Every structure is written in C-alpha cells, then in structure tokens.
Amino acid sequence: MKREFDLIIFDLDGTLYQVNNEMDRVYPRATIHLLARKTGRDSREIEPEFLRKKDELQVILNGQPTSTLTLLYFYDVGFEEFEDTIDSMIEVDKYIKPDAKTIDTIRKIREHYPLFLYTTNNSKVSDRILNHLGLSELFPPEKRFTLSDAGKLELPRKEKLQFVKPGLRGFAHILQMHSVNPDRVLMVGDSETSDITPAQRSGIHTYHITNRISFYRLPEWLGV
Q1: Domain of 131?
Q2: How far apart are CA 205 and CA 149, in angstroms?
Q3: pLDDT at position 60, please?
C-alpha cells in the first residue's frame, strides 16, 4: 500500500550520493585556509583552536556539528565568503560518481510525491553536485534550501544559523513554504544528528539512509 505524504525532503551529501571521505576533508581544510588568510595567522595555530570551538558547539547543539556551522557560528566570516572558498577548492568530478540507479529511484518517487532538497552545503557546490549526478532537473533551484539560502534571510546572523541543520527552524521554514503539516512529510537523510533527529523533533516522519541499498529500497518502502 502506498504511504501518504504531501512532501518528501531529501538531504544531499551522503544521501543522493555515497559519502566520500576525501571530499569531506575539503571542508575543514577550507575552513582553516580561510581563517588563516583572514587573520594572517599560521594554520597550525588556528586548527587546534578551531577544533576546541567545534567541541564547544557540539555541547551547545547536543550533536556533532559540521565544520561549516562551527565556522559561521564563532567567526566573523560571511556565508558567501565561505561559499566561494569551498567552490574554489572542491573537485566534484573527482570525488563523486554519477549513478543511473539513483536517478531512476528519484524519478520513480517524483511520479508520486513532490520533492524538496534541504542541505547544509552551499548553493554553488550543491548545483555542481546535482549537475554532475544528473539530478538538477529533479531538484531545480526553487525546490532547494541550502546554506546560501539561509545566509540570505533578512535576520541577525545567529538566527540565520538556526535555519541550518540540525537547527529546527529550517524544517519549519520548508513546511511553511509548502503549507504542509509535519505528519504528512518525510525526511530522507543519512545523518542521525543533522537529518533524522531534528526532523523527528519537528514531527516529521523519517527514512534513514545507511547505505546505497537502503536508498534504492525507498520506492518499495513508500509502496510505489
């Protein structure tokens, strides 16, 4: 029997493609590189300080934060500034392989449900990843909420960061955008901290991606 949802929200990194550890290491490297450039300090001096800040934010959030969120939470770095740094350092084609089965899976699901993308990645890199995966048509720009979109909100900086996962305001914002109730929405993601727990706290149903097989089985789980 088909499960009834008015919206399915997908995470990007680790959900629509398999996590690449080498790619994940680019984000903390870019963070330290940017801080060293802005402050004129040695990266070897900045890194342990940054890791302490990340541990501090973990206590605040009660969950492991990303390097991006730690940077924007504690340091005077603009959303666009970090977006440009990541975009210049990351080699999408090198780290990610397109997967026809993923495209087929998403196409099957889109025949039955409206789809939306909610990612802590920025708009430029998200666009490059989706293009490379062949998924841009399935998640067009108006069907995405990225780190860059959070940065463009007319709100104080700390309030903007509450729209970044694992904050709950981003989920509330997406529900409001679509005029849907949380109990009619499904969140599909790989991260307990960023995707599953905050979605459940928002009253949203969840589907946990643990490997590619679990992703490919999503249409069957949905009953489509």
Answers
A1: 7-18+96-222
A2: 24
A3: 85
Residues 208 and 107 in one domain: yes
Distance, in Å, from the CA atom of 5 to the CA atom of 180, rounded to the nearest integer, reads: 10
- Is the pLDDT confidence value at 192 over 90? yes
Sign of CA dihedral 76, 79, 83, 84: negative
Q: Which two tokens stand for residue 92?
A: 């999408």
Q: Could you tell me the two tokens for 118?
A: 């909610």
Q: pLDDT tier at 189 (50, 70, 90 boundaries)?
A: very high
In a domain, 2, yes or no: no
What pLDDT score does 161 carry?
92
Residue carrying structure tokens 């709100």? 155
The CATH number assigned to the domain holding 105 equals 3.40.50.1000
The rounded distance, in Å, linking the Cα atoms of 95 and 78 is 26
Query: CA 222 to CA 224: how far, in whole Å?
Result: 6
